[in-house]
Predict the 3D structure of the following.
Amino acid sequence: MSIKQVWRADPEADQKKQVPNLTGTIFTAVENTDKVHNLIVCTLCSCYPLAVLGMSPAWYKSRSYRSRAVRDPRGVLKDFGTELAPDVAVRVHDSTADMR
């Protein structure tokens, strides 16, 4: 079973199995498709899942990145080498706002 299938079936159980020290923290997975590309940002505090991904890069914490990711997500993605077709929707998920 692929990780995508596992997370669709029971994401909470798999997260507890893969990263047991994340007690009380449950992630939501969003999938990029041919029609939708997702961008995750924390506009308030640049929170980041350290236990899963390790130390966050310096640019992720910068105020300019956090504000621009919301204001100009296609521009941010392009700066990182991801150019999307005009018909692909970009959904920005503010992890802080989504968790409140």
